[in-house]
Amino acid sequence: MIRAIIVDDEPLAREKVELFVRDEADIEVVAVCGNGPDAVEAYHKYKPNLFFLDIQMPQMNGFDVLQQLTTNPFPAIIFITAFDEFALRAFEFHALDYLLKPFNQERFRFAVNRAREILTSTSQSEISMEQIKVLLDAYQKKSVLMERLIVKTNGKIIFLKVNEIEWLEAAGNYIKLHVWNEEHLIRDTMNSIETQLDPGKFVRIHRSTIVNVEQIKEMVPWFNGEYKITLKSNAQVFLSRGFKDNFNKLLGKNL
Fold first, then answer.
1. What pTM does this model have?
2. Which structural domain range is residue 160 located in?
3. Closest by alpha carbon to 214, among 227, 201, 230?
4. What is the largest CA-CA distance in the chain?
């Protein structure tokens, strides 16, 4: 039997994978997890052969989970993603499979069959470990190359240049991108996306706010050591006292 763990922060997505797995007689689901830390714990407890792993999760994403897996041979991985341009390119190139939401049972079965091939390969551990290592290395380096985002909204796919973003705001398990009079939501965390943005243009000014300094029109002292920042669109954000050092480093002067 193939021992599988399902990891996704969306309940409906977890239920869908569980439903499709029922038609696969040789797969036993040993754990279902809604976040990264639980997935790592379940991995060490059950030593699964197969992971259905969501990429875009808050706090600990799918790549963070992979970095905690040390067993040899490595489990087969089927990544789950809503839409991630980098992920799709990397998975295609490195022959690792993924399920692009929303996926159907036919696509699910295709991915499972590829996983079976990996698990029955005599060189499974060498191939899988090497592919995962290359993928993780590429993921860790991609931040400095990030020039655009692809956002799915209202049934459309929008290609958004990162430099057009005025500011970014934490919104629960999502990030709200402010682009003049438009707003877009992406699933990510502030800590994660901060590492993907050009540090010469974007700066964290608050626990829940990142601003594009090229979009700043003016700033004035405010209460308790804070600053009120007015952007070119006339939107207003605040530089928190605790994040002033970040701003000083970027400007090369002290406020």
1. 0.55
2. 148-251
3. 201
4. 66
Same domain as 168, residue 98: no
134 and 152 belong to one structural domain: no
Euclidean distance between CA atoms 29 and 46, whole angstroms = 10
| CATH number of the domain enclosing 118 | 3.40.50.2300
Same domain? For 136 and 152 the reply is no
Claim to verify: residue 64 and residue 135 sit in the same structural domain: yes
Task: Choose one of 109, 144, 179: the last residue of a domain.
Answer: 144
> Please, which residues have CB within 8 angstroms of residue 230's CB and are 6 or more apart in sequence?
216, 217, 218, 219, 236
Q: How far apart are CA 201 and CA 232, in angstroms?
A: 15
Return d(Cα 176, Cα 168) in angstroms, integer: 6
For the chain, how are helix, strand and coil distributed in percent, rounded to 5?
40, 30, 30
Number of separate domains in the chain:
2
- pLDDT tens for the 255 residues of the chain, in order: 899 999 999 899 999 999 999 999 999 999 999 999 999 999 999 999 899 998 878 778 888 888 887 766 678 888 888 765 555 655 654 446 778 888 899 999 999 998 888 788 755 555 556 666 666 666 655 545 467 787 877 778 888 888 899 999 999 888 999 998 789 998 888 887 887 788 778 899 999 999 999 999 999 999 888 999 999 999 999 999 888 887 777 766 666
Indicate the SS3 state at residue 114: helix
